[in-house]
Amino acid sequence: MATADTTRLRNFIGGELVEPAGGEREDVINPATREVIASAPLSSEEDVDRAVAAAKGAFETWSATTPAERSAALLKLADRIEENADEIADIESANAGKPRQAFLGDEVPAMADQLRFFAGACRVMEGKAAGEYLEGYTSIVRREPIGVIGQIAPWNYPLMMAVWKIGPALATGNTVVLKPAETTPMSALKMAELAADLFPEGVFNVVTGHGEPTGSTLVTHPDVDMVSLTGSPRTGKWIAKAAADTLKRVHLELGGKAPVVVFDDADMDTVLETVAGTGYYNAGQDCTAATRVLAGKGVYDDVVAGLAAQAKGFVMGDTTSPDTNLGPLSSAGHRERVEGFLERRPGHAELVTGGGE
After folding, report:
1. I need a labelling partner for 136 at 20 to 30 A (CA). Which of 112, 143, 158, 309 fits?
2. % helix, strand, coil for the chain, step of 5
């Protein structure tokens, strides 16, 4: 259970940190140590209503700002992420189980670059003439802000995927209500704290909680104009159906099972390095992870033995250590799911490495 020393997280709504309306909370767990590291709000319909109202209230003013103003705010946020990289890395390592060194080297530069990209892109957006269809009339395509964007970020890249979502939305004059995954809420709230004085109140809001009721309320809310999800195909299907009732626009980035095909004439060193790198990076928790390998008969044994050797070479342990390059699975629930794959393996399948507690 959470203690007095545990970080007490709060929603970020209308430019301030606020307690959940109903007072409900749940523990946030460090997946590497299984210790409670924070207490997060379980946001109710009332909390989502408040966040959406704040975003709707801020939309008219924010959408009327110039691209130069929006660009400047995003550039400052990119700078702040870099300036606070060490603290953010501590948070993401503890909450998501990421090796700290890898997060600092890979994700922090990527996030800053993404924000700077969107900051620049919003200043060069183009419309186009669509032709003269009626005498005396000119048809054009004009890009305009959509409105309030409800965004649901995943647990495998909690902050980086949140940046991918808020960057283009805010750059183009929309306002945002972001719901991070319930198991990894800490870095998104830290980003909200860093952005608090960069955007007008209500432009960027964060509410934490589960898919039900927090996520479902956000998706079905009549004042949310678009929903963006990075998550499972099952959740994506539900969102597409639910959003149809209010004619919301939908952006879905859904998971998959990426196969790797290895032919008999493949360069084995390249195969092993590439497949192991893409398969085990971020503990394999990646929508582009190499989750299965189809190898030709002539190289099959070499591929199996080589990948087993690669797997044994990864270093697990303290996620704050620079030597650690393989973190834990991000939650107990996810670990149980992966263990289920091993338990349900076909009788002819052989474990060539690992598989124990």
Report:
1. 143
2. 45, 20, 40
